[in-house]
Structure formats: structure tokens, C-alpha cells
Amino acid sequence: MAFEEQLVNGRYRLLGHLGRGAMSLVWRARDERLDRVVAVKQFLHEPGAGAEVCERAIREARLASRLRHPHAVAVYDVFEDAGSMYLVMEYVPARSLTELLVERGPLPRCDVVRLGRQLGAALAAAHGDWLLHRDVTPNNVLVSDDGTARITDFGVSRALGEHPAADEGVVVGTLPYLAPEVARGGEAGLPSDVYSLGATLYTALEGTPPFGTSDDPITLLRRITENQLTPPVHDGPLTAVLMRMLERDPAARPTMQEAVDLLAAVGRPAPPGPPRRSRLRRAAVTGAAACLTSISVAAGLTLADRPATTAAAPVEHPPTTVTADRTVRSTTTAAVPVPAHPSDGPARHPTAAEPSEPAEPLVAGGCTARYEVTNSWPGGAQAQVTVHNDRPTRLTGWTVTWVLPGGAGIRDLWNGTLTQRGSAVTVTDAGWNALVEPAGSATFGLNQELTAGAPAVPVLSCRTS
User: Which residues does the annotated region (Disordered) include (predicted)?
Assistant: First the structure.
């Protein structure tokens, strides 16, 4: 049966369906007074619920109209016609993020970062006006063909300090993206939106929500409240930011604006312009990554490969310790070889026939570490370290140590905890990635600052606990 156009409120001509939700229909329409295309949301209701629907429509319009931002869908008007409530919104020729993920699968990291910065900026503006969205999900994100993202559907939003009676005793939001405090029946706050945006971006990057999906809402609620998060497949600075946004404790999460700033910093050391030819020699050059061209140098490393005994030259700064979700800027002094004993004379580097003595591990053997340079640019490089479990049992913690070559310093580190004294580097697990199954692996990454020369592959020691 062909669709027949109809005019509502004497002004908006409905041209066709755009979508349908549990409580509404969305139409593409023309505003004949202003001669522009708009989206019109028609609220559905059961007999006898008209007053409640009217209140909900007016409330959504009132709250959403407070937010004017290029990455939020604007609300123009609200009215009643023939017993139905309508909300007039900006028309955005776009698909929901859910539809995009179904079509393309997980998105490249650079696309996820761009989405996060855009959506986070709109939500930060809302938070600046003390407005909570309360239902940030891929369904409520519209993505245009040019990659522009907009947050929409403020149907369950509310202003801080406002407590509608209808919300009492009701968990508001979409289960896979609920913050733990909301899933436990607590009140939503600004950190809850941060969590839901983190869960949405996690889904875009990993292809599944942080706590998976389930047809049983009780099972899903238990996973969320018990923080049974699915370990992320991807590593890197973006994952570190998302894990901060997904902290179980609301107080430990960044604010929305801080999250935007963290996302903006992801990948910042990468050089602009066309890919540069690697200055590394004897390196295997890999293919281009989805978002930037990277040059990889792989080196398998074992516990038997140890450097000569070294001691760091004096530095004026105390040891630097950095957790997984923060970065460090430091300048280190090159390590100076010293004799193992004062009477031994000049330090000697071990040869293949004369291996150096291994450092005392927390547990002898058990893991190996592999250092790989994944990108380089003038004055810096990015690397990934893979920790492999060589034991027949699960690792419950790991530590990787090495000595920085002269002229090198660590600028950023993610997915691990860094302690640095001079040129001596120690990285331990970040807690959430401490457990490594037999034959499994965990990774962490870092950005280096180089004052001279090309990035070098250090010799690593791996210890278990």
C-alpha cells in the first residue's frame, strides 16, 4: 500500500518513515512555512496514557532545546495534533552507529577517536548546562557519510536536581551501556554519561559491548555490577582512555571534557604528512595500518639475552612512577657501563659464548617479552611490548625491565605501570591485564623521545609473580 503524505499542525508535511522505536515513529517531513526538511518524531501511546506521553514529549523538547551544539541533533518545535504528540528536530541524513557497525564491523581506531571527540564535545556542553543524557548508546548516535557524528534522543534525559516521579525505582537506560552504579539501582550522574560513552566507543572499536550481550537481563546486570568486563582485543593509547572511562568507581572516571582531551591526545606524536621511509636498517617493513602507515621492527627476545651490567648516570629527579591511565614526560641520562666489581677493570659486554648472569626474577622463567617498533618519526618512535606466558599455569602478574639506550626517553606508556630510575625501566601489569592464560599474551605500548639516531630494540627481561 502506497504511503500517502499528510500534513500535521498545518505546517509539517510527512514524506516518509525514517525509523521506529519502542515508543515512537520518526518521519522525514517538510516544514512548509520555512521550506526546509526536518525530522518529526511521533510519540506512540496506549489508550489512557495520553497525558503521560504529552508530558514526556514536552519534557524532552524542553531539555534537548537547551543544547545547541554541532554534534547534537537540534530540537525545533513540539506540538499536539489529532491526539498525538510530535517533536520536530533537525534532519540529519545519516545512519545510526549500530547500523554502521552491522554493515562494516568494528571501526578503525582513528574513526573511533574522531567519533569520541565529537560526541564527547556535545555531551561536555550538555554537562556544562547540568544536563544528563542517560542513554548514550550506538542506537542514539547518528553518523553521516562524511564521518560527522551527532548525539540524539534526549527522551530519558534530565537536568540535575530534577527527579521525575516516573523514575523512582526504575533503571533508566540501555542495559549493555549502563554504568555500574545505575545498574545497581543508584542515581545517574555526570560520570554515568562518561561511562556510557566509553561503552559505546568500546563497542565501536571491539565490535561488542564491554560486558557482552545476553538475552537474560539478569545475567547482563550481574556482569555489569560485578565488573566482569570482556578483555579488550586491541591495545594502545585509545584502549587506555576507554578503560579510564569504564572505571567501576564513578569518582575515578575523567569528566566528559577530560575524556575529550584524552581522546584528542591519542596518537598526537604521529607526524603529519605522507609516510616517511624508515631509517631503521635490517628491518622488516610491514603493510599500512588502517589509520596511519607504520614501520615495524620485530625482535624475539628471551630471558637468556641480557645486557652488560650497567648503572645509570646520576640524575636530579627521583624515580618516576606512572599508572596505566596516565602519561609521563621525562628526560633520562644515558646509562654508563661500570664494572661488576671495582677490581674487575672496564666493563665487558657478554658474548654468545659468555652470556651475562640473569637478574633475579620474581619467579624464575615463566614469561618472555618481545619489543616491536611499530612507528617512527623524527625525534620519536612508538613501540609495542608483548608478554608471553611460557608456563603451563595462568600468570597472575608480570614485570618487564630493560635499559634505555643513550638519548632515549619514554614520553607516554599505556596498559602498564611504569617506574623509571635514570635509564633503568620497569613496567608491571596494569591490574586488569595481569592474568595471562597458558600460551596467552598481554601487551603494553609506549612512545619514545629520541634526541639522536634511530629507535633501537632493547634487550628485555620478563619476570612473573
Answer: 334-362
